[in-house]
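FW: tagging you since you asked about this chain on Friday. Here's the raw sequence from the shared folder, copied in full. Didn't touch anything.
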Amino acid sequence: MALSLAKAAPSGSGGLDLPALTLAEAAERIRRKQLSPVELTQAILERIEQLNPRLGAFITVTGEQAREAARAAEQDIQRGRYRGPLHGIPVGVKDTHYTAGIRTTGASRVLRDFVPNFDATVVRKLKDAGAILVGKTNLPEFSFGGLTAGTNNPWNLSRNSGGSSGGSAAALASGMLIGATGGDTSGSIRNPAATCGVVGHKPTFGLVSRYGVVPISWTLDIIGPMAKTVEDTAILLRVLAGYDPNDSYSVEVPLPDYPRQLRKPVRGLRLGVPPAAILAEFHPDTQSSFREAVRVLEGLGARAQEVTLPPSFELAAECQTIVRICDAAAYHRPFLKAKAEQYRPDNPALPPVSQVRTTVEAGSLLTAAQYLKAQQFRRVFIRECLELYATFDFFLSPAMPAPADEQAAPRITFRSEYNLNGFPAISIPCGFSTSPAGLPIGLQISARPFRDAEVLALAYAYESATDWLRRKPVISG
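HL: got it, structure written out here
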């Protein structure tokens, strides 16, 4: 059988399919007291119960806590204590985010029984804004890898959801969440967002706190919002962003009202695009969707130009790998001393030796001189990127080399490079594959540091000019 996501609406919802609502739509109905947080949360929990066995998007579902929080939100709103557009909205967080009294496993045997006694800063901010935590989403072990074992793609259950924030992306695409968070060290928000046809924003490094989040790399990790639309993403970022003294890399900068700055004109904007020789290395459907996305923005008045990338782009991914695995080795060292035998997957279909263990052991073999050399190269790369980005307003690229589980190996992927330089980058839906048919394809928009509001605005302009959001997956099974 096939189950369309436009299923029968719960009783009392006025005929609405509540899980299909965007965050902005649900928030407006809650604000007007036309929708109950209890009703919305119950509809989401029912959708999770129905679909999660086939999608595997959640590690932990916090049903009772969510219902209790929804009742409290409803009481507050009825008493005139409305906190804003996240009040009463069901959300999920990646299972690397500390949650007080709720397991935080990192999808690993090593942390299987770890229950934090405090919330990560981003979790606390979501709760303070009135959001309802309904669960912790799946990921590859400790976020290592671009595939999320056990999480299927809602557009084709035989395909993976991407990674490492694959659980969040799959849950959003299938209507099991209204909003979510992800973590991005090598593209792990943008990869699954593109693969599952949702929106994923990697903010500027330092804009969102990582305090209370299981790390891969302290100098590369970035936490960001994932949602169904650009507007929803902006609403989430407004809550998540901000200085946190508990995060030593947090930056204190003025924070725009991201949702209010979405409606900006595109005419006259300068768009950089990759050299044709590099684009030719991407999957054919990805190439054609990207070219059409550029034409749409040109039709809105923007001017696109092919740019020559600085030499450092060719080595940026390798540099990022050195930094990433050295930082990871430092974090995992005490676990490897005490729990090395627990670095193995639960899934018998996977190799018995954990990728995490082999990676961090390799990182421990690198010398301090090699690590410092990589960081020196990183400074060169950042300087060259700043010089390059001074020649245009935004840089466009495919968000992923190929649709889900399809193969393409361009020498520059435009993913981990943005973790190395810390620039903001967003993935938004820009089409679907034709061979094979029906797999989402993403457009990536990046800009200079702390121009997150402008990135969101250009993404919103593109989203508004296209109709990709109207397409919904059909869950078969």
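FW: Residues 6-11 have pLDDT under 50 and may be disordered.
HL: agreed, and The radius of gyration is 21 Å.
FW: great, closing this out.
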